[in-house]
Amino acid sequence: MFRIDASTNRINPLEVKRFTELGFGERKHLQEWLENCPQALAQADGEELLIIQKEFDGFDDTRERLDLLAIDKSGNLVIIENKLDDSGRDVIWQALKYASYCANLSKSQVVDIYQRYLNQKAQETDQPPASAVDNLIEFLEVDGLEAAQINRIKTQRLILVAARYRKEVTNTVLWLSQFGIACQCFKVTPYKAGRELFLNVEQIIPTPESTDFMIGMVAKEDEEKSADTEQKHRHTLRLKFWEQALEEFSKSGCTLYNNISPMRDHWLSAGSGISGMPYQLIFGKSEIRVGLSLQNGQAEANTFVFDRLEVQKDTIEENFDAPLIWLPLPDKKACRLQYTKAVDGYDKANWPAMIEWMVHHMTRFENALRDPLRSINQQLRQVSFEHSELP
């Protein structure tokens, strides 16, 4: 790795260091870095991981601890084993043991493990703990935890992290990949330039170029072996519901959804006049909802619109003829305001009444927000936000 010196038009090599000579330890440093920045282990496609436990020792009849436990966007558990300057000979054996232990964890056990992790984090920061259920629903992008497929059979993944890998480790990882066992090796290298320290994280197995191919082959094989019946059922159910709902909207005075097609998702969006801030209908197993989702890529714009709507809260709710739920969601980029109703959503006998409720309340919702949004949109165009990624 080289540093570019633009003033001299030269490049200067950075000094490769060992973790131990810099005074860094496995648990106190490397593990802490990855826990708080799991995107360092992102693949070329920018995969997201959610850390749900560290130093996990909840295995029966053993005192062993795995370094980090995560979950990916598909609901698969990811076992992360960290080593420092050398992988050692036994890291594969350790990771496989932990994967076998985790393979038996049920969805409720995974939620409980994550909640204990959140409770511990809250205790360390003297803050109220977040909800594991809510976080998982948002991360997995499902309309309820019952819809999430978590830790299915033969889906556990392994991630190994070390500065140097022994040949017996890399050979074994490549051999395991032939049997559909997802195992990645990341090489971590510390660098020093003067008083500055840098860390390079590089996926070496499988190579980024071959990752998509290998994942695709495994996914194809899984698809051929067994169809995901439950997910297909939900998709079919949602498609039929939206077909009926859109038919009723087309007969109503609400024109928001006139040019919207039915989808398999649990939500259906329509433009509000402000970019990235759509009206939304939500169809869930236990709840239906009308709302406005402020999900513009610039968090400041979402807050700007939300705050100005909230100033007019009394007038908006009076025009809507009911109190709304106002969700500023300060820890997230999006804000929402919504109105909900508890239902048995997957009982088709309830659909006519549910759709009638949606049409009636979305009509009132749009009427209550039309003028405030138009005025705020004019203000929004006159404001410039400097977008920056959160650290």
Number of strands: 14
Shape field: globular
Whole-angstrom Rg: 25 Å
Order of helices and strands: EEEHEEEHHHEHEEHHEEEHHEEH
**Helical residue percent band:** 25-40%
Sheet-strand content, in percent, reads: 15-25%
Number of helices: 10
Overall pLDDT: 89
Indicate the low-confidence ranges by residue numbers.
387-391
Distance between the termini: 23 Å
Structural class computed from helices and strand pairing: alpha+beta
The biggest sheet amounts to: 7 strands, mixed
What can be said about this structure in brief?
This protein is an alpha+beta fold. The protein has helices spanning 26-36, 91-102, 107-125, 132-140, 167-177, 208-225, 229-250, 299-311, 313-320, 351-380; strands spanning 2-5, 10-13, 15-16, 49-56, 66-72, 77-82, 157-162, 182-193, 196-205, 267-270, 279-283, 287-294, 325-327, 335-342. It is 39% helix and 22% strand.
